[in-house]
Amino acid sequence: MLTNMSLWMMVAANENMPFIQVFVVGFGTVFVGLFALILIIALLGKVMAGLAAKKAPKAAQAAPAEQPAAPAPAAVEPEPAPEPALEEVEDRQSMVAAISAAIATVMGEDVSGIRILSITRMN
Fold first, then answer.
1. What is the full DSSP assignment across 53-111?
2. C-alpha closest to that of 113 among 100, 122, 123
3. CA 68, CA 117: separation in Å to the nearest integer?
4. C-alpha distances in Å from residue 21, one per residue of 13, 26, 34, 61, 120
5. How distant, in Å, are the alpha carbons of 25, 32, 39, 84 from that of 28?
6. How far is residue 52's CA from residue 117's CA, in Å, rounded to a whole number?
7. pLDDT tens digits for 2-36?
8. How many CA atoms lie within 13 A of 27 on its CB side?
9. 10 Å Cβ neighbour count for 22?
10. Cα 114 from chain centroid?
11. CA–CA separation, 123 and 40 (whole Å)
12. Long-range contacts made by residues 106-113, C-beta under 8 angstroms, separation at least 24?
């Protein structure tokens, strides 16, 4: 069984083109393409930076002047963050309907064909 490399060598030999020349042309094409992409990306970066610089003065004029910052208070140890409170669902019927619809979909049955006895929150 022939590999891709040996097929390339056979093609190059049939076209009277040495393998090294095929290799150099292939790698040259790849590197020229990569260099072109680098130039395009760098050019677009400079264009976008120029557009952002033009928009910055307009935004500064539209925003009101900032007041000077107040002096920093003395070092105070931070308080631990409070535990998030579990929110009670305001519309329990909608929650039960959504849960039962999801279960019925997973089971492949109609909602009227299933019976949910209890719903318990698990943390």
1. HHHHHHHHHHSPPPPPPPPPPPP-PPPPPPPPPPPPPS-HHHHHHHHHHHHHHHHTS-G
2. 100
3. 61
4. 11, 8, 20, 61, 72
5. 5, 6, 16, 60
6. 59
7. 566 666 666 655 666 678 888 888 899 999 999 99
8. 5
9. 16
10. 39
11. 51
12. none
- The domain limits of the chain are 8-63, 91-123
**Token pair listed for 3:** 């590999």
Please give the DSSP secondary-structure letter assigned to residue 15: T
Assigned token pair, 51: 């557009």
Residue with tokens 């097929």, as numbered in its chain: 7
Q: Say how far apart CA 32 and CA 57 lie, in whole Å.
A: 39
Angle CA(80)–CA(73)–CA(78) in degrees, nearest 5? 10
| 61-110 residue pLDDT tens | 665 555 656 666 666 677 776 665 555 657 788 888 889 999 999 999 89
Residue found by looking up tokens 């064909």 in the block: 113
